[in-house]
Design brief:
CATH architecture of the largest domain: 3-Layer(aba) Sandwich
CATH topology of the largest domain: Rossmann fold
CATH class of the largest domain: Alpha Beta
Strand order of the largest sheet: 3-2-1-4-5-6-7
Radius of gyration: 21 Å
Number of helices: 14
Low-confidence stretches: none
Helix content: 40-55%
Largest sheet: 7 strands, parallel
Distance between the termini: 17 Å
Structural class: alpha/beta
Order of helices and strands: EHEEHEHEHHEHEEHEHEHEHEHEHHH
CATH superfamily of the largest domain: Glycogen Phosphorylase B
Number of strands: 13
């Protein structure tokens, strides 16, 4: 029996490098999807290692313009460019990453009879919740799609509400995943009680709420140490806030690390701190931390709770005192921390990128038939 080779066209309207969760996911996902030929539309400059994840990478030439007076002409121009590429590549299906963003609009407006699967990532849903124009564009992409994929039921529910429950039957939950090979867990798990070596990794912006972790350290009973890895608009503010709180020796800031380097560092910490206070589509870094044997203190958001369940310690989002109590609990109770380490490793095994790729391929086959 011959397996059908799927020709998929997809892309993300950013420079082609693993610089964010969605870009890292795309790199892993299409590499792990069996029996597919993937053409990826991205932006220059291109990380040369990025090319190996796709059968073909095409850099878009239309100059990007954000939402505003130039957005409609920009989408029109991008649509003409993308339309020519669709005619050239003749895909079996289109995977439109980010509902309602410019590239998804261009793909849906020129797809013709090619079926579309829209894939939500979180920032697209947040934008639609803030702005009516963004909401209209998200609705247009959803209406043109044969299926809409979200990584959690919490995100799927928000999309359903945003679109007036008109496309409920098109919504499908496919959890994201990571490559579960080549992971390293600390050889000798820490023993005893006392201050923890904590790590936080991600963008330093308002929604990621790294400030919650910094301010929590000023409220803990034990002198835990926090390493913050990442870049963002709030970097200087966070550094100054740590100084103002007298935490100069207990909070260390390091720049964004490529995944391989981050993964090599994770086993050296005692626990991971996750601080997002608004919408979080999935939180790949949570699974990355757990896969390396780290217990997680996490902001108790619906989507995050769905991913982690009992394999972490929840605290009230945006509440430093609540987080401080969770950290002290881990520091005092070695047996709880040991149980959380075991639960973390077991939970991470549920999120293998090969399962994500297989489910997305099966969905693509259904919509193409």
């Amino acid at each position: 029996m011959t397996t059908k080779l799927l020709n998929i066209l997809t892309g993300i309207n950013r420079t082609s490098e693993p610089s964010s969760g969605s870009m890292i996911l795309a790199n892993d996902l299409y590499r792990a999807m069996p029996e597919t030929h993937t053409t990826f539309l991205g932006r220059a400059p291109v990380d040369q290692a990025w090319k190996t994840a796709f059968d073909q990478l095409i850099t878009l030439s239309t100059t990007k313009r954000p939402q505003g007076p130039d957005f409609d002409p920009y989408v029109d121009e991008l649509t003409r460019e993308v339309g020519a590429l669709i005619r050239k590549t003749r895909p079996d299906a289109i995977h439109a990453q980010y509902l309602g963003f410019a590239l998804s609009l261009a793909l849906t407006r020129t797809a013709g009879s090619t079926p579309i699967i829209a894939i939500a990532h979180g920032p697209d849903v947040m934008a639609a919740e803030r702005n009516e124009r963004e909401r209209e564009t998200l609705h247009e992409v959803a209406a043109a799609s044969a299926a809409i994929v979200a990584p959690t039921s919490a995100l799927a529910d928000r999309i359903d509400r945003l679109t007036g429950c008109r496309f409920t039957d098109r919504l499908t939950v496919i959890p994201w995943g990571i490559p579960l090979t080549d992971l390293r867990v600390r050889d000798q798990p820490p023993t005893g009680t006392g201050p923890l070596s904590l790590v936080h990794a991600g963008r330093l912006d308002d929604n990621k709420s790294t400030i919650t972790a910094v301010e929590a350290l000023a409220l803990t009973d034990q002198p835990h140490h926090l390493t913050v890895i990442g870049q963002g608009v709030l970097r200087e503010y966070l550094e100054q806030r740590a100084i103002d709180l007298g935490l100069r020796d207990r909070v260390q800031f390091e720049p964004f690390l490529p995944r391989r380097e981050l993964w090599s560092r994770l086993p050296s910490f005692d626990a991971f701190v996750f601080t997002t206070r608004g919408l979080e589509a999935f939180g790949l870094v949570l699974i990355e931390a757990q896969a390396h044997g780290l217990p997680v203190a996490y902001s108790d958001l619906p989507g995050v709770r769905e991913i982690l369940g009992s394999a972490g310690i929840p605290y009230t989002p945006g509440d430093p005192r609540s987080l401080a109590m969770a950290l002290d609990e881990m520091g005092r109770d070695f047996y709880r921390r040991k149980a959380l380490t075991k639960a973390a490793l077991n939970n991470a095994r549920r999120y293998d990128i090969t399962a994500t790729g297989r489910q997305l391929r099966e969905l693509t086959l259904r919509v193409t038939s």
